[in-house]
Write a structure and sequence with these properties.
The chain has helices spanning 18-24, 30-44, 53-67, 75-94, 101-122, 127-158, 160-175. It has seven helices and no strands. By secondary structure, it is mainly alpha-helical. Helix 2 packs parallel to helix 4 (75-94) and helix 4 runs antiparallel to helix 5 (101-122).
């Protein structure tokens, strides 16, 4: 017990490099999945083209943070910042953002930077690191789209007309 090495949460099992690892990595932990879905769900609350701003801010700053990941940021600090960003994203999901969109985008960009720093610290420091980052960006964008779609579906189900039409459809199905 005294000679045990620290357990690293992001090293994966088997090969930990390349595009495929970057693609699968965000789906390997609930923290990653929750962050991606939260950003997408927050984006769904923005009107029109502004809905693309939150995922774009997160992914852009995540990529920038990952490139800085070779910096020697203390792992405990990264874990604390990542954990706190998850709490704030949860609060953002439950509060009104009208009039605070710029503040919300700045926070989402900062959280992307924090998550990127953590990913960059774990990424290979060679050409495979670039491929890893590419996979990570694709997967994170997909996760944001998933969060957006979930928020859109929930909002659609909460509309009175949607509830009424689904009720009528289920009554018709029972009669058949």
């Amino acid at each position: 017990m005294l000679g045990a090495a620290p357990a690293y949460a992001h090293t994966g099992v088997g090969a930990t490099h390349g595009f495929a690892f970057g693609l699968e990595h965000p789906f390997g932990g609930l923290d990653h999945l929750a962050a991606m879905i939260a950003v997408g769900a927050i984006a769904a609350r923005f009107p029109g083209r502004a809905a693309f701003a939150a995922p774009l801010a997160f992914v852009s700053f995540m990529a920038f943070g990952a490139t800085l990941g070779a910096l020697d940021v203390p792992p405990n600090l990264l874990q604390a910042l990542t954990f706190n960003s998850m709490i704030i994203l949860g609060v953002m999901l439950t509060t009104r953002l009208e009039g605070r969109k710029l503040l919300a985008l700045a926070a989402i960009g900062a959280f992307g930077l924090i998550h990127g720093l953590a990913h960059g610290a774990d990424a290979p420091q060679d050409g495979d690191g670039v491929a890893f980052l590419g996979g990570l960006i694709v997967a994170t964008s997909f996760g944001h789209a998933l969060g957006f779609a979930c928020a859109f579906a929930v909002a659609r189900l909460n509309r009175p007309s949607a509830r009424l039409s689904s009720l009528v459809a289920s009554k018709r199905a029972r009669r058949s």
